[in-house]
Amino acid sequence: METLSSLKNPRVQLWRSLKDRKARKETGLFLVEGRKMVTEALASAFPVETILCDEAQAGQYAALLERSEAVLLPAHVLAAVCDTKTPQGIAAVVRMSDVSRPGKRLVALDGVQDPGNVGTILRTADCAGMEGLLLSEQCADVFSPKVLRATMGSIFRMPVEITGDLPGRLRGLREDGYSVLSSQLDGTPFYCREGVGDRYVLVIGNESSGVSPQVQQEATHRLRLPMRGGAESLNAAVAAGIMMYELTRELAE
User: Fold this and answer.
1) Same domain, 131 and 82
2) Fewest CB within 10 angstroms: 133, 135, 138, 162, which?
3) Are strands 90-95 and 29-33 parallel, antiparallel or unpaired?
């Protein structure tokens, strides 16, 4: 098993660069941290290129290190590679997987920019039984460290597609028989919706400006959750969670 001890090593420099969106896009690689995320990656269809481990903690991670190419690093080098302030002693360099065919129940994010919201929505979609996530290019990067931590491993189970033309992508789905549900404050009551069917895309808009006019034009349904108190709106991830679970309520346990 190789040991790399210099921050100037080209491989170490590459791994450190994966904190930046540009480097992730250029290389097709991203980094996950901690035992849970590394275990999830190894169990998924995503190719794990290299496991990185604190050389002082190699013993406790021996079973994981046997499942892929592994490199040992001094604690200070691993800390430089990782995004968290206190790394758990193990990380993995993972290659982005090809987008699989979307299912019937989809979520689309239209400019959702908070990493915590993007990650939480993806995780909740996985829990609720949704079958794919579409993101506009204006969303927070789904492979950024903060988003990945918020997904708690769901990134490896939920098909994700990033599109530069979300309105056009939704138009194609609508023409293919999907209902497009735009969540917006001036919509009709969500709990009174009709004619949604079993193939649909739930669209969640930007935290401050909501669903863009271009995307609203592709909607078959414009829906709003009731605001019975004094607050004007819900957090994007909370609203998405309520609607996803209601839409999938009749699925078998």
Assistant:
1) no
2) 138
3) antiparallel
The model's pTM is 0.92
41 lies in some domain: yes
Burial readout 85-114 (b: 16 or more C-beta within 10 A, e: otherwise) = eebbbbbbbbebeeeeebeebbbbbbbbeb
Name the phi and psi angles at 165, rounded to 5: -140, 75
End-to-end CA distance of the chain: 45
Q: Examine the pLDDT at 82 and tell me if it is beyond 90.
A: yes
31-53: pLDDT as tens digits? 999 999 999 999 999 999 999 99
pLDDT 10s digits, 83-99: 988 889 999 999 998 76
Same domain assignment for residues 229 and 119:
yes
Q: Is residue 186 part of a domain?
A: yes
Bridge partners (DSSP) of residue 165 are none
Whether residue 213 is contained in a domain is answered as yes
Full residue range of the structural domain in which residue 126 is found: 105-247
Phi-psi group of 240: left, alpha or beta (phi > 0 → left; psi -120 to 50 → alpha; rest → beta)? alpha
